[in-house]
Amino acid sequence: MPKVKIPRKSTAIDMTAMCDVSFLLLTFFMLTTQFRPDEPVIVDTPSSISETKLKDGGVVLLTMDKDGRVFYSMTGKNTRAAILQSMAGKYKIGFTDKQAKNFEGLESFGVPIDQLPALLDMETEQRKQFKQSGIPLDTIKNELVDWVETSFEAYSEEKGEVPIIAIKGDGKSNYPAVKKLFNSLQAKNFNTFNFITDLEANPNKKPSQSSH
Amino acid sequence: MAEMNTSDSGGGKRHKGGKRSKKMSTRVDMTPMVDLAFLLVTFFMLTTTFNKPTIMDVKMPAKINDIKDQTELKASESMTVLLGGGDSIFYYMGLPTDPATVVEQSSYAADGIRKVIADKKQDVIAANPTEKNPDRLSVLIKATPRSNYKNIVDMFDEMSIIQVRNYALVDLDKTDQGLLDKKIGISAPPASN
Q1: pLDDT tens, position by position, B33-58
Q2: Which of A30, A142, A178, A198 has the most C-beta neighbours closer than 10 Å?
């Protein structure tokens, strides 16, 4: 009697379906992702137990580095365009179309407004090299509060809701600089802040783990 | 797979009726493509979810122009935390003007200031057994010019860990500075403005 022949099956699987799915996912993630914007300074934020995430739109971000320089940024290209226009009117500084376009793409900056046109004229690489002095927030010349106020106006006009103020401070920045920032905001009745922090373990949830 | 379909003139097989091109399979090996696609999917997945920073919501007291709007604080239900330079931390209970007030030193460690405040909170609750809202501890955080942003955020964080509802960041005054100077023995630079 002849042996029973077991038919040899090919080990190759049809990958078309898998490929379809993976590319579908890839497209989805590619379209939804937002890359971290370029920041002019590196800031080492302190940590807290808060688990609230920063929302996507409507955030006025004030970054303070360890030397006390303050940088400003606002979400939304259209909002930024409106803010620049309004600030240009307030300070009587003309911006060319190219500069306005650059400002829409600029994420975060920290120069006095009279230096802003020069900063916007720079190429991206050049801008990275340039040492920005921070936005002035003295009692005599408080441009930062103007930027924040203008952002609130522009955003409420566009979206009909109030943006939030997020403060991203370096753990090493000293208290007088921080106080100056708080005081100038509080003077204009901005009393609710959101500190951007790193996540750390909550000792109430895990009593065995200690923070710090 | 990706070989060129060379003419079969060299082959021994001859089909009748002249030349006929070899039939190639239309199936392509998709494994590397899938590999690459999943690598990218993983990359984008990780960058999207981990990009969002966490935030800590802080409400600062609004400016009060009228002294009538200010609330009085019981000395037995308040404590003051003084943030010094070099991550040092001091505290005292009650009023700074009271001669019996003693400034104690503590630390940012878990068994340091957190334990002190939590104990004080329990004391305040125990002292008001008949009250509906016995949890009336108020913590005043006074930062010296030598302290830094991290100290403040740490203290706010402690407040949310211990669940102290009333706390505020207040300016350091002369009495506090005097108490602190007496405690550490060296004079810190006076607070600006």
Answers
A1: 888 888 988 888 877 766 677 888 88
A2: A178
